[in-house]
Design goal:
alpha/beta; TIM Barrel; three-stranded parallel beta sheet; 9 helices; 7 strands
Amino acid sequence: MIQYKRLKKKVRIDINVSLGFMTRERAKRLRSLGVKRYNHNLETSESYFSQICKTHDFSDRVKTAKIVKEEGLELCSGGIIGMGESHRQRLELGFSLRSLQPDEVPINILISRDGTPLANLTPLDPMEAIKTIAVWRFIMPKTILKIAGGREVHLKDKEKIALKAGANGIITGGYLTTGGNDSHKDITMIKEIGLKTEL
């Protein structure tokens, strides 16, 4: 834990972490060490959650997200679309996220993997992802909506439309298990549609 303070002092960056379920004591400790933001995604809507996860409940994820906010940390919480959920369930997830007042919402699009239960799902239509972004922008008008994992695979040449539809952030360079766009390519794309970058 002491490494957080040392890291922040040496490189002068905000420390954001993702460490699973949270207790109030751990949240207070992280804040005292200088951690700014905590990531804990809801993943999918409450009504679809049991189809995706069997190890814990939707309420467990909500509980951690609430502790994070109540103990003074910023909250990054989003989900994955394109896992077989309905339009209504995507809308449901958007409203569940809004109720947590997250500072940032990453919108991931499923990249199906061979050997997994979702391997044979039909890929989400790019315009369906863009419509979700647009609707979530109305649901959460002041929140940072970041298009994240799967955007390079599914949106391809429509990433510019996604940014114009309501996304005001992207994750660049790569993700936990998947490579991403080169950051220079993303910066060029952003400038081509007349937007500014903050690095």
